[in-house]
Amino acid sequence: MLEPDLVPDGSVDGITASPSAPGVDEPTGQGTHSRRRVQRTINFDRSVLERARAAATYLASYEPQAGVRSLADIVNPAVLAYVTELEELYNGGEPFRPVLRMPSGRPANR
């Protein structure tokens, strides 16, 4: 996964590091309703990507009422729904603490 780009004001793609002590939960970054888009590279299972691309192409061309004009219109709501489910299951329904960087590569087997 690509590392976030640092900008002069100390923010990282809209997420600002908290000036407090490490481990202290303070809200950072923009609200969840921000329409700012950030390009990232992720890996999909080929079959999932092919189905999503086919759906986005068909819906954009033939079903404008679906509101799907691009692959992002499928991916963003799906990821948001799953993250919300994970927050409910593992974090008492609260957003997980923001991070500046994710570790690269796959996590070690436990």
From TrEMBL:
Where are the annotated segments for Disordered? 1-40
Tell me the Gene3D superfamilies matching this sequence.
6.10.180.30
The protein's superkingdom reads Bacteria
Q: What is this protein called?
A: Centromere-binding protein ParB C-terminal domain-containing protein
* Origin species: Lentzea pudingi
